[in-house]
Specification:
The chain has four helices and 14 strands. With 247 residues, the chain is α+β, with helices and mostly antiparallel strands. The radius of gyration is 18 Å and the shape is globular. The chain binds zinc ion.
């Protein structure tokens, strides 16, 4: 697959395994390699425009107590909770026009595995949890936004926080939200990332005041962010992550 790699990032792409094709003056990923680490350079993205695939008018920064896996001390972690009516962008092989489309998301969902976040949105999580920042994942060989322990600075895995049953953002049936607080995000939320299972009882989190995610589309995200590439990149990414939307 060909990549859109800015000149300044060529060494980074090469370190991840991308190769340069001189005849076409183009970086590409050799066949058989995991594409996920190269996601930021996927050709569906206009140069310089991040491929944001999530948007939501009603969104909350939810903070929760959490025990650090490394030092076992208590810390605070944060996640972005999107209200019903959020949208995600996908490109499907069988799209009639091949352009991809924004689709309405159902249920309350936490966004995670976030690799692109506008600074105005990131700032609102950092305001609540100062150790929310970009981290480098050895597993996926890419940078993403992660919570870090306030005691030992260890990154806290999104898998543990957002996907593992019993994690702070994956309450079991009948659990309440011990120590959770929700803070309404100012402005429209946008990100490149994934989202998890539908969260029941999200409105029980102190600070959630549901009901304002309907209405006009998010204006700032109305620009086209993708071009047809002949196959479904986002669907493939979701499959790798095991994150096909589930209700
Ligand atoms: Zn720690």
């Amino acid at each position: 697959m060909d990549l859109n790699v800015p000149y300044a990032e060529r060494n980074q792409a090469e370190a991840l395994g991308a190769r340069w094709e001189p005849s076409r003056r183009c970086w590409y990923v050799p066949d058989g390699m995991d594409l996920l680490p190269f996601r930021r350079w996927f050709p569906e993205q206009d140069p310089g425009v991040p491929g944001l695939n999530l948007r939501s008018l009603e969104t909350y920064v939810v903070t929760a107590p959490h025990r650090c896996w490394r030092c076992e001390k208590d810390t605070v972690v944060a996640g972005f909770l999107m209200a019903p009516g959020f949208e995600d962008f996908s490109v499907w092989e069988d799209d009639p026009d091949g352009q991809g489309h924004w689709g309405g998301g159902e249920g309350w969902r936490f966004a995670f595995h976030i690799d692109t976040l506008p600074s105005s949105i990131a700032a609102q999580a950092i305001m609540r949890t100062p150790r929310y920042r970009r981290a480098f994942s050895q597993a996926t060989r890419s940078a993403y936004w992660a919570n870090h322990c306030s005691e030992c600075e260890a990154p806290q895995s999104d898998l543990q926080l957002f996907e593992k049953p019993g994690g702070p953002f994956v309450p079991r049936d009948g659990d309440d939200w011990p120590g959770h607080r929700a803070f309404r995000v100012k402005g429209a939320f946008e990100a490149a990332g994934s989202f998890g299972r539908s969260v029941v009882d999200a409105t029980a989190i102190p600070g959630v005041r549901a009901g304002s995610n309907s209405g006009p589309p998010v204006a700032i995200a109305s620009r086209p962010t993708a071009r047809p590439t002949g196959f479904s990149i986002l669907r493939t990414v979701r499959r790798w992550l095991g994150l096909a939307p589930q209700t």
